[in-house]
Amino acid sequence: MSQPTIEARLQRKFILMSNDAGIAAQLRAQLPQRWQMVETLDLGSLGGFQDILLHRFIFLDLDTLTDAFDPQDAIRQVRMEWMLNVPIFCFGGSQDERDQARLNRADRFFERDEVVERVGQFCHQYRWGE
């Protein structure tokens, strides 16, 4: 396993797990300078747990459910399989979906339109390293 460089650790990036191109475009438009949004529905495609730790937080769309992706599985993978404490901010979803995500240890929950307003706040809050 290769060790991440200091430069890699200081990069400002987060993960978006959603198949909603509209939300992705809105979030991208709100990103502060030097921030990068990494879109995926497969955390394993980003590498191992050490690669996930290079991201400051995860935005997870609870409305995204496909044959190959279940948002609850993504939360369980981060929390139970990899035992990571990367903040997971969920948006959308029914009350039942949110309750299940709470049980799986997701951190906070927002409405779909609210997540776009919050991205700047979270980028500011997690801007450490400078």
- Tell me the CATH architecture: 3-Layer(aba) Sandwich
- Any idea of the CATH topology? Rossmann fold
Tally of individual helices: 6
Strands of the widest sheet, in order across it, are 2-1-3-4-5
Q: What is Rg? A: 14 Å
C-alpha end-to-end distance = 27 Å
How is the main sheet built?
A: 5 strands, parallel
- Per CATH, the class reads Alpha Beta
Average pLDDT confidence is: 91
**Helical residue percent band:** 40-55%
By CATH, the superfamily comes out as: Response regulator
Number of E strands: 5
Structural class of the helices, strands and pairings? Answer: alpha/beta
Q: Beta-strand level of the residues, as a percent range?
A: 15-25%
Protein name: Response regulatory domain-containing protein
Structure description:
This protein is an alpha/beta fold and 130 residues long. It is 41% helix and 17% strand. The mean pLDDT is 91. α2 packs parallel to α6 (112-125). It has a single domain, classed as Response regulator (Rossmann fold, 3-Layer(aba) Sandwich), CATH 3.40.50.2300. The protein has a 5-stranded parallel sheet, sandwiched between helices. β1, α2 and β2 form a beta-alpha-beta unit. It has 6 helices and 5 strands.
